[in-house]
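Hi team,

Below is the intake form for ABC transporter domain-containing protein from Photinus pyralis. Please confirm the fields before the structure is written into the shared record.

FORM ID: S-0412
PROTEIN: ABC transporter domain-containing protein
ORGANISM: Photinus pyralis
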Amino acid sequence: INPATSKNLENLETSIRPSYSLVSLQCWLNLVLDLLVSCIAIGIILIAALWRSETSAANVGVSLNLILVANATLVRLVESFTQLEVSLGAIARLNEVETQTPSEDKPSEDQVPPSSWPEKGSLTLSGFSAGYNDDHKVLRDINLSVGRGEKLVICGRTGSGKSTILLGILRLIESSGEIEIDRRLLSQVPRNIIRKRAFITVPQEPLFLPSASLSFNLDPDA
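The structure came back. Fields below:
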């Protein structure tokens, strides 16, 4: 086995260890409950055998039936409690992610445009520069203007910045310069509004729903 496969198996074993421990604990609790109920049933049978003149078969049968019902109820109670504990743990982790994960929006991105924005869809880039780190900029000082209804095709070799310019416009990576849509600076608009209203993007490996229309696949929120 190569080192990558061995490391993957080791990580997989570590990830399923809590689930295995939970299942083992449930099996142990079920076994303890079954043994406890068996001891109680044996005790009832011994009592009925020793004092057979004071008991009846009907009373013994009802007692054993109640014990079996109580055992099933306790087993379901244990399973429900462990499932509740797992669910509460998942909720706690989700709450931790929600409260501790920093928001991508900056304090200056608080100007919510009117519901009709963008009306024309004109795009302007002024001094646009973008990259994946501060030391290496893929694009530098790009000036571009695309009017309403115009079609623009950006061509270039791999690594020339075709995807970078789109990621920068969508505010998925940090950029410098000014980006305007209908003369409104995108640096002042919340990023979720930009991605929801201003652009429809199709990735290189898109996921299409065969049963839905083309319009829905391109813009589910339309």
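SUMMARY LINE: The mean pLDDT is 83.

Thanks, M.
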